[in-house]
Design a protein that fits this description.
Blueprint lengths: L3 H51 L6 H4 L5 E5 L34 E5 L9 H7 L4 E6 L1 H15 L7 E6 L3 E6 L4 E7 L5 E2 L13 E3 L4 H4 L7 E4 L9 E6 L8 E6 H19 L6 E5 L39 H16 L4 E4 L2 H5 L18 H5 L15 H15 L11
Parallel strand pairs: 3-6, 3-9, 8-10, 9-12, 12-13
Antiparallel strand pairs: 1-2, 4-5, 5-6, 7-8, 10-11
Length: about 425
């Protein structure tokens, strides 16, 4: 039988033995807990980084990923993003299926940047960005096609009673999403500056004349917009342009024929000066769509000896870096220089560089599958290539991808100082 002293001595020894074990287990558990917390934290941070990088959500992701460099991927499970027949406001100029085109695979191609993934187009998210705002496309019929594309991309998410289309002064067309108090507009101004081709219907004139220093007549309709998307290119593609210093209404104006590149440069200068003086730098986001390619000569992408163009083409060009003769890099450089100069003045214009990606899509033009505004002759009917439209683009199609790029860039824009360059 133990005496109280012996029991106390044994108890003390037991405590001395067990205490280091408890201390060891406590430290080990604490260490494991810290490791688990750090590992979980790392996984969360990595997940956020990957998601933001892939979806172009981080503020510097455009520096990390050139969304204009990529390839077309056939994706008939996710594309097209809308149906031609179901778009209420589809234009007959680009409704290729309606006018008899049977091969519809041109609708199933998705643009895939090399270095990242584009965010999935979300009409509701875009409408939230545009809530209480104006998005205005300014330019020629190619820009009008991109505008139609944007309207088709979002209008199915809006109830019929909450959307409308309004035509103003002939040149301005306005789609309105009433619940969001948002408008998506198109303004016809094919040369940006004033010209005798400013009528949106009657503009096919043999003698094109441009008031090279005049833009106010057009600009007053769009200067206060929240997002502006410009384009002008094909209308300048002639050896010389007749320029006017003066008014169309007066007989004392000065006319001069000026070479194409110089004329284009002068028009961009007029456009730039107007933006520099009149645009609200705390409100307006500015974009310029680069050259939209044409596919007028089959021998540019094919070794076939027979003449041809985009007519009967059914597959994209797969040759990496293909560049056709219809896209003039000299004009691209003039545009880049104008944008760079505006940047030096503290005004940011973001180029929507759609040229290379669109070069590959020789099969995506309307060709003969569009509304013909004038009756075709028997000679034309016997030679379809003679009236094939290889300038515009079928919808759904390539302009939807342009708008997906625009959408990705709009997601990245800061909410303040949209047109001010960072200091």
């Amino acid at each position: 039988m133990e005496t109280p002293k012996e029991h106390q001595t044994k108890k003390t020894k037991k405590q001395q033995i067990t205490f280091p074990v408890l201390k060891y287990w406590g430290i080990r558990n604490l260490f494991h807990s810290v490791v688990v917390i750090l590992f979980t934290f790392f996984l969360v941070i990595a997940s956020i980084y990957i998601r933001r990088n892939n979806n172009l959500q981080s503020s510097n992701s455009t520096d990390q990923c050139n969304i204009f460099s990529g390839k077309w991927v056939f994706d008939n499970s996710s594309y097209p993003l809308y149906s031609e027949r179901q778009c209420t406001y589809m234009s007959d100029q680009v409704a290729c299926e309606k006018f008899g085109r049977k091969d519809l695979s041109y609708q199933n191609w998705r643009w895939q940047p090399h270095q990242c993934d584009l965010p999935r187009f979300n009409a509701t998210a875009l409408l939230e960005i545009l809530r209480g705002k104006r998005l205005v496309y300014v330019g020629d019929s190619l820009n009008r096609g991109q505008w139609v594309s944007m309207v088709c991309l979002i209008e199915s998410s809006i109830p019929p009673s909450q959307k409308s289309m309004q035509y103003s002064n002939g040149s301005l067309i306005t789609f309105k999403a009433m619940e969001y108090n948002a408008t998506i507009e198109f303004y016809w101004s094919p040369l940006l500056v004033e010209s005798n081709s400013d009528d949106p219907v009657s503009h096919r004139l043999p003698d094109r004349i441009v008031r090279i220093q005049a833009i106010q007549k057009h600009a007053r309709y769009w200067t206060d917009a929240d997002v502006l998307v410009f384009n002008t290119y094909l209308w300048w593609r002639r050896p010389k342009m007749k320029l006017l210093w003066g008014s169309f209404e007066r007989s004392d104006g000065i006319y001069k024929e000026v070479e194409m590149l110089r004329s284009y440069e002068m028009a961009l200068k007029t456009w730039s000066d107007w933006l520099d003086i009149h645009v609200n730098r705390t409100k307006t986001h500015l974009f310029f769509v680069s050259m939209s390619p044409t596919h007028l000569r089959r021998n540019e992408w094919s070794n076939a000896e027979e003449e041809g163009n985009c007519y009967n083409e059914t597959e994209p060009i797969t040759r990496e870096g293909y560049w056709g003769e219809g896209s003039d890099p000299r004009m691209m450089r003039l545009l880049e220089a104008a944008i760079e100069e505006l940047g030096k003045r503290g005004l940011t214009v973001r180029m929507l560089n759609i040229t290379q990606m669109s070069e590959y899509r020789k099969e995506a033009h309307p060709s003969i599958y569009r509304k013909q505004w004038e009756p075709l002759t028997q000679e034309q009917l016997s030679h379809p290539t003679s009236y094939a439209d290889c300038n515009h683009w079928c919808l759904p199609g390539v302009p939807d991808a342009w708008n997906e790029l625009l959408y990705a860039l709009l997601l990245l824009l800061p909410s303040s100082s949209p047109s001010s360059s960072p200091t």
